[in-house]
Automatic annotation (TrEMBL):
Region listing for Disordered, in residue ranges: 14-33
PANTHER family: PTHR32063, SWARMING MOTILITY PROTEIN SWRC
Domain of life where this protein originates: Bacteria
GO MF annotation list: xenobiotic transmembrane transporter activity
GO cellular component assignments: plasma membrane
Alphabetical list of Pfam families matching this protein: ACR_tran
This protein's name: Efflux RND transporter permease subunit
Natural source organism: Lacinutrix neustonica
Amino acid sequence: MQDGENVLVESAVSQVGEGAGNPQTDGGSAAEMPHKGKITVSMREYKYRDGADSQELLKKVQESLVGIYPGVLISVEKDANGPPAGAPINIELEGDDYNALINTAELMREFINSKNIEAIDELKIDVNKDKPAMQVVVDREKAGELGVSSGQVGQQLRNSIFGAKAGIFKEDGEDYDIYVRFNEANRYNTSAIFNEKIIFRDMASRSN
């Protein structure tokens, strides 16, 4: 081992947005996750780590990050091999009142945490209450009359919220993707989102 070389870490890669999701729970590592970031650390072989156990290191990292960033959910996990799978234990709640479900889930989490049950850690609610979901149902008949497909409507909404790639910015040998989307004030404003114009080619009136 050379002087100054890290005896614990072989390499580390950070990702923000695309690829930052958990492939075990977010439907694939390439899914777009603009609100997430991920740091992947590869440990050196055990014989080079001066006896440091990876599980103990994981636990220390997890404990050191608790409460540092209020409102940010931080999860420290060992890389899981094999097909996507959820957490070892899941509790699912169903109901029609979104806010009531969130409140019930938070009460359940506080109750379980208060019992200090050994081996239960990183107990979390897998719903981002600051970014609630909204189901958009396209009037297919009306869209058909106008010559617009439901896919075009969906893509327009997606571009407005997540952005459409407009090019690449190069600086100091690094490439940075450029995305164009609504500003923050309008990005989650339903009035602005649902009243935007769609530019498309009307195939019915296109000349041969």
